[in-house]
Protein backbone atom coordinates (compact mmCIF):
# COMPACT_ATOMS: atom_id res chain seq x y z
CA UNK A 1 0.00 0.00 0.00
CA UNK A 2 2.83 2.37 0.90
CA UNK A 3 4.61 1.51 -2.33
CA UNK A 4 1.43 2.17 -4.28
CA UNK A 5 0.98 5.60 -2.70
CA UNK A 6 4.64 6.43 -3.39
CA UNK A 7 4.45 5.37 -7.05
CA UNK A 8 1.31 7.35 -7.78
CA UNK A 9 2.72 10.30 -5.81
CA UNK A 10 5.76 10.29 -8.16
CA UNK A 11 3.49 10.20 -11.20
CA UNK A 12 1.29 12.98 -9.83
CA UNK A 13 4.39 15.10 -9.16
CA UNK A 14 5.59 14.62 -12.72
CA UNK A 15 2.20 15.51 -14.21
CA UNK A 16 1.94 18.57 -11.95
CA UNK A 17 5.43 19.67 -13.05
CA UNK A 18 4.31 19.46 -16.68
CA UNK A 19 1.40 21.81 -15.98
CA UNK A 20 3.53 24.24 -13.95
CA UNK A 21 6.10 24.36 -16.74
CA UNK A 22 3.34 25.01 -19.27
CA UNK A 23 2.03 27.84 -17.09
CA UNK A 24 5.53 29.32 -17.01
CA UNK A 25 5.95 29.09 -20.78
CA UNK A 26 2.65 30.87 -21.38
CA UNK A 27 2.75 33.61 -18.75
CA UNK A 28 6.38 34.66 -18.09
CA UNK A 29 7.35 37.56 -20.35
CA UNK A 30 11.11 36.91 -20.15
CA UNK A 31 12.39 34.79 -23.05
CA UNK A 32 15.11 33.01 -21.05
CA UNK A 33 12.55 32.06 -18.39
CA UNK A 34 10.37 30.66 -21.15
CA UNK A 35 13.31 28.59 -22.39
CA UNK A 36 14.04 27.28 -18.88
CA UNK A 37 10.40 26.28 -18.52
CA UNK A 38 10.46 24.63 -21.93
CA UNK A 39 13.45 22.53 -20.85
CA UNK A 40 11.70 21.53 -17.62
CA UNK A 41 8.61 20.63 -19.65
CA UNK A 42 10.45 18.34 -22.06
CA UNK A 43 12.57 16.73 -19.34
CA UNK A 44 9.48 15.94 -17.29
CA UNK A 45 7.75 14.36 -20.27
CA UNK A 46 10.85 12.21 -20.78
CA UNK A 47 10.79 11.21 -17.11
CA UNK A 48 7.14 10.16 -17.52
CA UNK A 49 8.13 8.07 -20.57
CA UNK A 50 10.76 6.20 -18.54
CA UNK A 51 8.27 5.76 -15.69
CA UNK A 52 5.87 3.97 -18.05
CA UNK A 53 8.35 1.10 -18.49
CA UNK A 54 8.62 0.49 -14.76
CA UNK A 55 7.03 -2.50 -13.08
CA UNK A 56 7.24 -3.21 -9.37
CA UNK A 57 7.85 -6.90 -10.04
CA UNK A 58 10.17 -6.25 -13.01
CA UNK A 59 12.51 -3.48 -11.99
CA UNK A 60 16.01 -4.76 -12.76
CA UNK A 61 18.21 -2.70 -15.11
CA UNK A 62 18.15 -3.99 -18.71
CA UNK A 63 21.64 -5.49 -18.49
CA UNK A 64 22.22 -9.23 -18.38
CA UNK A 65 23.92 -9.98 -15.04
CA UNK A 66 27.43 -11.37 -15.08
CA UNK A 67 28.85 -9.03 -17.71
CA UNK A 68 32.48 -9.26 -16.64
CA UNK A 69 35.44 -8.67 -18.90
CA UNK A 70 37.26 -11.88 -18.06
CA UNK A 71 35.84 -15.39 -18.49
CA UNK A 72 32.48 -14.14 -19.70
CA UNK A 73 29.74 -16.76 -19.62
CA UNK A 74 26.89 -16.26 -22.05
CA UNK A 75 23.45 -16.71 -20.50
CA UNK A 76 21.38 -19.79 -21.30
CA UNK A 77 17.88 -19.61 -22.77
CA UNK A 78 16.14 -20.17 -19.45
CA UNK A 79 18.24 -17.44 -17.84
CA UNK A 80 17.30 -15.13 -20.69
CA UNK A 81 13.60 -15.86 -20.20
CA UNK A 82 13.91 -15.09 -16.50
CA UNK A 83 15.87 -11.92 -17.26
CA UNK A 84 13.27 -10.79 -19.79
CA UNK A 85 10.50 -11.14 -17.23
CA UNK A 86 12.42 -9.18 -14.56
CA UNK A 87 14.04 -6.25 -16.40
CA UNK A 88 12.45 -2.88 -17.07
CA UNK A 89 11.30 -1.80 -20.50
CA UNK A 90 14.42 -0.66 -22.44
CA UNK A 91 12.50 0.97 -25.32
CA UNK A 92 11.54 4.29 -23.62
CA UNK A 93 15.11 4.62 -22.33
CA UNK A 94 16.38 4.38 -25.90
CA UNK A 95 13.80 6.79 -27.24
CA UNK A 96 14.45 9.54 -24.69
CA UNK A 97 18.12 9.65 -25.66
CA UNK A 98 16.93 10.85 -29.06
CA UNK A 99 14.47 13.21 -27.41
CA UNK A 100 17.21 14.75 -25.25
CA UNK A 101 19.51 15.35 -28.22
CA UNK A 102 16.81 16.85 -30.40
CA UNK A 103 15.63 18.93 -27.43
CA UNK A 104 19.12 20.34 -26.98
CA UNK A 105 19.35 21.19 -30.69
CA UNK A 106 16.01 22.99 -30.59
CA UNK A 107 17.11 24.82 -27.43
CA UNK A 108 20.30 26.01 -29.14
CA UNK A 109 18.26 27.28 -32.08
CA UNK A 110 15.85 29.10 -29.77
CA UNK A 111 18.74 30.65 -27.81
CA UNK A 112 20.21 32.00 -31.05
CA UNK A 113 16.83 33.44 -32.06
CA UNK A 114 16.46 35.03 -28.61
CA UNK A 115 19.91 36.60 -28.86
CA UNK A 116 19.02 38.09 -32.24
CA UNK A 117 15.79 39.49 -30.81
CA UNK A 118 17.66 40.93 -27.81
CA UNK A 119 20.26 42.46 -30.11
CA UNK A 120 17.50 44.28 -31.98
CA UNK A 121 15.43 45.47 -29.00
CA UNK A 122 18.02 45.53 -26.22
CA UNK A 123 15.99 43.36 -23.87
CA UNK A 124 14.79 39.78 -23.38
CA UNK A 125 11.49 40.92 -21.89
CA UNK A 126 8.63 40.44 -24.35
CA UNK A 127 6.48 43.10 -22.67
CA UNK A 128 9.22 45.70 -23.15
CA UNK A 129 9.75 44.51 -26.73
CA UNK A 130 6.06 45.09 -27.30
CA UNK A 131 6.34 48.62 -25.92
CA UNK A 132 9.18 49.25 -28.35
CA UNK A 133 7.00 48.20 -31.28
CA UNK A 134 7.76 44.51 -31.58
CA UNK A 135 4.98 42.33 -32.98
CA UNK A 136 4.17 40.23 -29.93
CA UNK A 137 0.49 40.77 -29.21
CA UNK B 1 -7.76 38.63 -21.90
CA UNK B 2 -4.19 38.52 -23.07
CA UNK B 3 -3.32 36.32 -25.97
CA UNK B 4 -0.90 34.29 -23.83
CA UNK B 5 -3.74 33.39 -21.45
CA UNK B 6 -5.81 32.10 -24.36
CA UNK B 7 -2.89 29.95 -25.51
CA UNK B 8 -2.40 28.69 -21.96
CA UNK B 9 -6.07 27.75 -21.74
CA UNK B 10 -5.94 25.83 -25.04
CA UNK B 11 -2.67 24.10 -24.10
CA UNK B 12 -4.01 23.02 -20.70
CA UNK B 13 -7.13 21.55 -22.32
CA UNK B 14 -4.99 19.63 -24.84
CA UNK B 15 -2.65 18.34 -22.10
CA UNK B 16 -5.53 17.26 -19.87
CA UNK B 17 -7.06 15.42 -22.83
CA UNK B 18 -3.74 13.71 -23.65
CA UNK B 19 -3.11 12.62 -20.04
CA UNK B 20 -6.70 11.44 -19.63
CA UNK B 21 -6.42 9.37 -22.78
CA UNK B 22 -3.05 7.90 -21.78
CA UNK B 23 -3.78 7.17 -18.13
CA UNK B 24 -7.47 6.24 -18.12
CA UNK B 25 -8.46 5.13 -21.61
CA UNK B 26 -5.25 3.35 -22.63
CA UNK B 27 -4.32 2.65 -18.99
CA UNK B 28 -0.59 2.55 -19.72
CA UNK B 29 0.56 3.33 -16.19
CA UNK B 30 0.32 -0.02 -14.45
CA UNK B 31 3.34 -0.51 -12.19
CA UNK B 32 1.73 -3.50 -10.47
CA UNK B 33 0.79 -5.40 -13.61
CA UNK B 34 2.57 -8.53 -14.81
CA UNK B 35 5.23 -7.83 -17.35
CA UNK B 36 3.52 -8.68 -20.59
CA UNK B 37 5.07 -6.39 -23.17
CA UNK B 38 5.91 -8.12 -26.48
CA UNK B 39 8.45 -5.66 -27.90
CA UNK B 40 10.60 -5.18 -24.78
CA UNK B 41 10.49 -8.91 -24.04
CA UNK B 42 11.71 -9.66 -27.57
CA UNK B 43 14.57 -7.18 -27.19
CA UNK B 44 15.45 -8.42 -23.72
CA UNK B 45 15.62 -12.08 -24.68
CA UNK B 46 16.97 -11.86 -28.22
CA UNK B 47 19.77 -9.26 -28.00
CA UNK B 48 22.01 -11.00 -25.40
CA UNK B 49 21.28 -14.45 -26.85
CA UNK B 50 24.62 -15.98 -27.96
CA UNK B 51 22.81 -18.01 -30.64
CA UNK B 52 21.00 -15.01 -32.08
CA UNK B 53 22.24 -14.09 -35.53
CA UNK B 54 20.80 -10.63 -35.96
CA UNK B 55 21.97 -8.72 -32.93
CA UNK B 56 25.18 -7.64 -31.25
CA UNK B 57 24.91 -10.30 -28.51
CA UNK B 58 25.72 -7.57 -26.02
CA UNK B 59 24.48 -7.88 -22.42
CA UNK B 60 23.56 -4.17 -22.43
CA UNK B 61 20.19 -3.91 -24.12
CA UNK B 62 19.83 -0.13 -24.36
CA UNK B 63 23.18 0.39 -26.09
CA UNK B 64 22.46 -2.48 -28.45
CA UNK B 65 19.14 -1.02 -29.51
CA UNK B 66 20.77 2.40 -29.91
CA UNK B 67 23.66 1.31 -32.09
CA UNK B 68 22.49 -1.90 -33.76
CA UNK B 69 18.75 -1.84 -34.20
CA UNK B 70 18.52 1.86 -34.90
CA UNK B 71 22.14 2.75 -35.56
CA UNK B 72 21.46 4.99 -38.56
CA UNK B 73 18.85 6.83 -36.54
CA UNK B 74 21.36 7.44 -33.74
CA UNK B 75 23.92 8.60 -36.25
CA UNK B 76 21.52 11.15 -37.73
CA UNK B 77 20.59 12.29 -34.25
CA UNK B 78 24.27 12.95 -33.50
CA UNK B 79 24.49 14.76 -36.82
CA UNK B 80 21.49 16.94 -35.91
CA UNK B 81 23.21 18.06 -32.71
CA UNK B 82 26.39 18.70 -34.69
CA UNK B 83 24.54 20.81 -37.25
CA UNK B 84 22.77 22.71 -34.47
CA UNK B 85 26.07 23.59 -32.80
CA UNK B 86 27.74 24.59 -36.08
CA UNK B 87 24.78 26.77 -37.08
CA UNK B 88 24.79 28.36 -33.63
CA UNK B 89 28.45 29.22 -34.07
CA UNK B 90 27.72 30.67 -37.51
CA UNK B 91 24.65 32.65 -36.51
CA UNK B 92 26.24 34.09 -33.38
CA UNK B 93 29.31 35.22 -35.28
CA UNK B 94 27.09 37.41 -37.48
CA UNK B 95 26.05 39.85 -34.78
CA UNK B 96 27.84 42.11 -32.37
CA UNK B 97 28.78 40.58 -29.07
CA UNK B 98 26.15 41.02 -26.38
CA UNK B 99 28.03 40.26 -23.20
CA UNK B 100 30.81 42.62 -22.26
CA UNK B 101 31.96 40.45 -19.39
CA UNK B 102 33.67 37.68 -21.30
CA UNK B 103 35.98 35.73 -19.03
CA UNK B 104 34.95 37.63 -15.93
CA UNK B 105 34.30 35.71 -12.73
CA UNK B 106 31.12 37.03 -11.20
CA UNK B 107 31.96 36.34 -7.61
CA UNK B 108 35.20 35.35 -5.96
CA UNK B 109 34.63 31.92 -4.46
CA UNK B 110 36.26 30.71 -1.25
CA UNK B 111 39.19 28.31 -1.08
CA UNK B 112 36.82 25.52 0.00
CA UNK B 113 34.67 25.85 -3.11
CA UNK B 114 37.70 26.04 -5.39
CA UNK B 115 39.46 23.02 -3.90
CA UNK B 116 36.29 20.89 -3.80
CA UNK B 117 35.53 21.84 -7.39
CA UNK B 118 39.01 20.83 -8.47
CA UNK B 119 38.72 17.42 -6.80
CA UNK B 120 35.14 16.78 -7.88
CA UNK B 121 35.88 17.76 -11.48
CA UNK B 122 38.59 15.09 -11.67
CA UNK B 123 36.28 12.48 -10.14
CA UNK B 124 33.46 13.40 -12.53
CA UNK B 125 35.76 13.07 -15.55
CA UNK B 126 36.94 9.63 -14.42
CA UNK B 127 33.39 8.42 -13.77
CA UNK B 128 32.27 9.77 -17.16
CA UNK B 129 35.01 7.90 -19.00
CA UNK B 130 34.17 4.75 -17.03
CA UNK B 131 30.47 5.03 -17.93
CA UNK B 132 31.36 5.46 -21.60
CA UNK B 133 33.88 2.62 -21.75
CA UNK B 134 31.57 0.18 -19.95
CA UNK B 135 28.53 1.12 -22.00
CA UNK B 136 28.38 -2.18 -23.85
CA UNK B 137 28.40 -4.20 -20.61
CA UNK B 138 26.74 -2.14 -17.87
CA UNK B 139 24.19 0.69 -17.77
CA UNK B 140 25.61 3.71 -19.55
CA UNK B 141 27.09 4.42 -22.93
CA UNK B 142 28.73 7.13 -24.94
CA UNK B 143 25.90 9.65 -24.73
CA UNK B 144 25.37 9.15 -21.00
CA UNK B 145 29.11 9.36 -20.30
CA UNK B 146 29.42 12.50 -22.40
CA UNK B 147 26.55 14.18 -20.57
CA UNK B 148 28.12 13.32 -17.20
CA UNK B 149 31.48 14.65 -18.39
CA UNK B 150 30.07 18.09 -19.21
CA UNK B 151 29.35 18.70 -15.51
CA UNK B 152 33.12 19.02 -14.91
CA UNK B 153 33.68 21.97 -17.30
CA UNK B 154 30.41 23.48 -16.06
CA UNK B 155 31.69 23.47 -12.46
CA UNK B 156 35.06 24.87 -13.53
CA UNK B 157 33.27 27.56 -15.52
CA UNK B 158 31.09 28.59 -12.60
CA UNK B 159 33.80 28.63 -9.94
CA UNK B 160 36.95 29.61 -11.82
CA UNK B 161 35.59 31.47 -14.84
CA UNK B 162 36.04 30.82 -18.52
CA UNK B 163 39.78 31.58 -18.51
CA UNK B 164 40.43 28.46 -16.46
CA UNK B 165 38.64 26.38 -19.10
CA UNK B 166 40.72 27.93 -21.88
CA UNK B 167 43.89 27.13 -19.94
CA UNK B 168 42.76 23.50 -19.53
CA UNK B 169 42.56 23.18 -23.31
CA UNK B 170 38.79 23.66 -23.75
CA UNK B 171 39.05 25.95 -26.76
CA UNK B 172 36.33 26.35 -29.35
CA UNK B 173 38.44 25.26 -32.28
CA UNK B 174 39.83 22.17 -30.55
CA UNK B 175 36.35 21.17 -29.36
CA UNK B 176 34.83 21.70 -32.78
CA UNK B 177 37.63 19.66 -34.37
CA UNK B 178 37.12 16.78 -31.90
CA UNK B 179 33.37 16.94 -32.40
CA UNK B 180 33.73 16.80 -36.19
CA UNK B 181 36.21 13.94 -35.95
CA UNK B 182 33.94 12.00 -33.60
CA UNK B 183 30.86 12.34 -35.79
CA UNK B 184 32.82 11.47 -38.96
CA UNK B 185 34.40 8.41 -37.38
CA UNK B 186 31.01 7.19 -36.10
CA UNK B 187 29.74 7.32 -39.67
CA UNK B 188 32.89 5.62 -40.93
CA UNK B 189 32.69 2.85 -38.30
CA UNK B 190 29.05 2.20 -39.13
CA UNK B 191 29.77 2.05 -42.85
CA UNK B 192 33.17 0.31 -42.68
CA UNK B 193 31.80 -3.24 -42.79
CA UNK B 194 29.47 -2.27 -45.63
CA UNK B 195 32.34 -0.73 -47.61
CA UNK B 196 34.62 -3.72 -46.96
CA UNK B 197 31.82 -6.06 -47.99
CA UNK B 198 31.28 -4.12 -51.20
CA UNK B 199 35.00 -4.31 -52.02
CA UNK B 200 35.45 -7.97 -51.07
CA UNK B 201 32.11 -9.25 -52.30
CA UNK B 202 30.33 -10.15 -49.04
CA UNK B 203 26.77 -9.51 -48.00
CA UNK B 204 26.91 -6.89 -45.25
CA UNK B 205 24.72 -4.44 -43.39
CA UNK B 206 24.97 -0.74 -42.64
CA UNK B 207 25.37 -0.08 -38.88
CA UNK B 208 25.06 -3.82 -38.16
CA UNK B 209 28.63 -4.82 -37.66
CA UNK B 210 28.22 -8.33 -36.27
CA UNK B 211 28.88 -11.32 -38.50
CA UNK B 212 25.61 -13.10 -39.25
CA UNK B 213 26.15 -16.76 -40.11
CA UNK B 214 23.02 -17.10 -42.24
CA UNK B 215 23.68 -14.16 -44.51
CA UNK B 216 27.23 -12.86 -44.09
CA UNK B 217 30.29 -14.21 -42.31
CA UNK B 218 31.96 -10.85 -42.24
CA UNK B 219 32.00 -8.32 -39.45
CA UNK B 220 33.50 -6.99 -36.25
CA UNK B 221 34.23 -9.69 -33.65
CA UNK B 222 32.11 -9.58 -30.51
CA UNK B 223 34.97 -10.97 -28.45
CA UNK B 224 38.71 -10.53 -28.88
CA UNK B 225 41.05 -13.29 -27.74
CA UNK B 226 44.18 -11.64 -26.39
CA UNK B 227 47.29 -13.31 -24.90
CA UNK B 228 46.32 -12.13 -21.41
CA UNK B 229 42.61 -12.90 -21.66
CA UNK B 230 39.56 -12.12 -23.73
CA UNK B 231 37.95 -8.74 -24.32
CA UNK B 232 34.22 -8.44 -24.89
CA UNK B 233 33.84 -6.07 -27.79
CA UNK B 234 30.11 -6.42 -28.63
CA UNK B 235 30.71 -5.92 -32.32
CA UNK B 236 31.46 -2.27 -32.86
CA UNK B 237 29.50 -1.08 -29.80
CA UNK B 238 32.61 -0.25 -27.77
CA UNK B 239 34.19 1.79 -30.58
CA UNK B 240 30.92 3.62 -31.25
CA UNK B 241 30.51 4.36 -27.53
CA UNK B 242 33.99 5.90 -27.30
CA UNK B 243 33.41 8.02 -30.40
CA UNK B 244 29.97 9.11 -29.22
CA UNK B 245 31.48 10.03 -25.85
CA UNK B 246 34.00 12.30 -27.60
CA UNK B 247 31.34 13.82 -29.85
CA UNK B 248 28.78 14.46 -27.09
CA UNK B 249 31.17 15.73 -24.40
CA UNK B 250 32.92 18.16 -26.74
CA UNK B 251 29.64 19.26 -28.33
CA UNK B 252 27.99 20.03 -24.98
CA UNK B 253 31.11 21.80 -23.68
CA UNK B 254 31.13 23.87 -26.85
CA UNK B 255 27.49 24.83 -26.30
CA UNK B 256 28.37 25.74 -22.70
CA UNK B 257 31.26 27.95 -23.78
CA UNK B 258 29.04 29.67 -26.36
CA UNK B 259 26.29 30.41 -23.88
CA UNK B 260 28.86 31.72 -21.40
CA UNK B 261 30.50 33.84 -24.05
CA UNK B 262 27.33 35.47 -25.37
CA UNK B 263 25.02 35.45 -22.36
CA UNK B 264 27.55 35.48 -19.54
CA UNK B 265 28.59 38.46 -17.48
CA UNK B 266 25.70 38.27 -15.04
CA UNK B 267 23.54 41.05 -16.45
List keywords for this structure.
heterodimer; A: 137 residues; mainly alpha; Helix Hairpins; 70% helix; elongated; B: 267 residues; two-stranded antiparallel sheet; 9 helices; 2 strands; 3% strand
Tally the beta strands of chain A.
0
* CA distance, first residue to last residue of chain B: 32 Å
Strand order of the largest sheet of chain B: 1-2
Which spans of chain A have pLDDT < 50 for at least 5 consecutive residues? none
Q: Describe the biggest sheet of chain A?
A: none
Remind me, CATH topology of chain A? Helix Hairpins
Beta-strand fraction estimate of chain A: under 5%
Q: What's the CATH architecture of chain A?
A: Orthogonal Bundle
- Rg of Cα set of chain B: 23 Å
Q: Biggest interface: chains and residue counts? A: A-B, 62 and 67 residues
Broad structural category of chain B: mainly alpha
Proportion of residues in helical segments of chain B: 55-70%
Estimated radius of gyration of chain A: 22 Å
**How many helical stretches of chain A?**
5
Average per-residue pLDDT of chain B, rounded, comes to 80
Oligomer: heterodimer
The dominant shape of chain B is globular
What is the distance, rounded to the nearest whole angstrom, between the alpha carbons of the first and last residues of chain A?
Answer: 50 Å
How would you explain this protein's 3D organization?
The complex is a heterodimer of chains A (137) and B (267). With 137 residues, chain A is mainly alpha-helical. Chain A has helices at residues 2-27, 31-52, 77-86, 90-121, 126-131. Chain A has a single domain, classed as Helix Hairpins (Orthogonal Bundle). Helix content of chain A is 70%, strand content 0%. In chain A, α1 runs antiparallel to α2 (31-52) and α2 (31-52) packs antiparallel against α4. The mean pLDDT of chain A is 84. Chain B has 267 residues and is mostly helical. Chain B contains nine helices and two strands. In chain B, a hairpin with a 2-residue loop joins β1 (223-226) and β2. The interface between A and B is large, with 62 and 67 residues.
Amino acid sequence: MTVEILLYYILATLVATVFIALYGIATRPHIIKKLVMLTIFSDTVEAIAVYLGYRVYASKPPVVPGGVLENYVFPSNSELEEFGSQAVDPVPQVLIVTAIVIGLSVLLFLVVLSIRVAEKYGTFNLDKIEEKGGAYE
Amino acid sequence: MKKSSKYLFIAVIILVAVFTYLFWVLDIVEPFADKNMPLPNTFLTQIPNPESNYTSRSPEIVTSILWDHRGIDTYYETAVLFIAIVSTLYLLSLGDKLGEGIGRVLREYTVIAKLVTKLVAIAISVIAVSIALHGHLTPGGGFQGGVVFVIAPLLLLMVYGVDRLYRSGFREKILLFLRTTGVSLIGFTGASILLSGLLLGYNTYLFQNQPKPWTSNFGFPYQLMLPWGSLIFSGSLMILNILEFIAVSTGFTLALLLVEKYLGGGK
